[in-house]
Amino acid sequence: MQCRWFNEMLVETALRTFLALSAINFGVLNSYALVPKPRNPDSQNKTKNIIPEHYIKEIRPPTMQGKPIEVDFSIRVVDINSINVEDMDFRMDMFLKQEWQDARIKIPEEMFEIGDESITLPSQFFENLWQPDLYFLNSKVVEIATLTHKFSSVTLFRNKTIRYAARMHAIVACQMEFQHYPMDTQICPISVESFSYNINKMVLKWSGPGVTLSPELKLLQYNILPLQLRETSAYTGEKNGNFSRLVVYFRFERQIGHHLIQTFAPSTLVVVLSWFSFWLDLDAIPGRVTLLVTCLLTLVTMFTGLRSDIPAVAYVKALDLWMAGCMVSVFASLGEFVIVKVLCGKYTALKIKEKEHAKLCQETAIASWTNPPSSPKYMHHFKYKNMAKDSCIKLYWRTVSIAYAF
After folding, report:
1. Contact (CB, 8 A) for 263 and 278
2. Does the bond joining 122 to the residue before it have cis omega, within 30 degrees of 0?
3. Model's pTM, two decimal places?
């Protein structure tokens, strides 16, 4: 019995081991079946055939009669955000394209599909080509957008034109001026220039419209005015030479609606409210002072909050003039009340003094003399013969003793 039981256990163990090994082998075979087959080695070498062996990517492409190579440049602005007035910069998301011709490359015909005039290669291929070393003169940060890889590509055309396209974002510096704030318009130029090749080696040109804006682009506090493009050359002392330069001027016009509601309308109402003190009685001193001081403190609190929205500058802004005008109006109302109150007190005191003087004069007044009659028959009534000549008569008191009989 023991031998039979031992044989059954041995058979069962061997069967389980066989099934486990079968499952492992089946999984391994399936995993190998899922691995893609290697590509044709000839297809992998097609991109290598584009660049000949004598190609040197550090040397610019040859041109006819040694003329400077032309590089076409264009920008498609997708979004503009974070216009920071404190740091005086803004962030811009854009699609950037550069095009130039390189006669040294050789594109096999079998790489083009039927009816296509170009082929698109990954961005890694761009590292093997000559690159125009363009940069933004006034940029703080420039980066290529990435998700799982960099959003860039290289397109090759039959006429040996190379197009490099990339999705980029940049933080661009802008020298802002706030003299007319909040009715200001900020002009922010963006300049593109080659770092190594002067105007005798490379010329930059705008491609087509040059710079375009996305129709969905909207800003909260600004209106974007029509862009201005320039193709120019400038001397750069740091690089000791004249360089071709592309310039685009972004003009941001500040929307006044926000400030009309938040600044101008409330401050105007406060100033008008201070004028109501003119209709109060002059003796209503507590009411007048309370109204005017409250208006003045309201303006101070309002404008203190507004000044925190923009950086402190050394010159006077339009908003400062408005603030000063509102405060002077309210302060003038308070000053008018004080002046009128003082003058009214003096006028009242003068009137009282005049009344007292008039009353005193009325009590002590003496009738003026009149000329004597010209008729001689009345002359004997006047014992004082010089009455017509003298302006006054000396009067003397005469004491008469009267005896009373009882």
Report:
1. no
2. no
3. 0.70
| CA nearest to 196, candidates 146, 230, 243 | 243
**Domain parsing of the chain, residue ranges:** 50-255, 258-360
Strands 69-84 and 202-213: parallel
The domain over range 258-360 is classified in CATH as 1.10.10.10: no
How does pLDDT run along the chain (406 residues), one tens digit per residue? 445 544 555 556 665 665 555 554 544 434 433 444 444 444 445 566 788 888 888 888 988 888 899 999 999 999 998 788 888 999 999 999 999 999 888 888 888 888 788 888 887 888 888 989 899 999 999 888 877 778 888 999 988 999 999 999 999 999 999 999 989 999 999 999 999 999 999 999 999 899 999 999 989 889 999 999 999 999 988 888 899 999 999 999 999 988 899 889 999 999 999 998 888 888 888 888 889 899 999 998 888 888 777 778 888 999 999 999 999 999 998 888 889 888 988 888 898 888 888 888 776 655 455 555 555 554 555 555 555 555 555 555 555 555 554 4
CATH code that applies to domain 50-255 = 2.70.170.10
Dist. CA 59–CA 133, nearest whole Å: 12
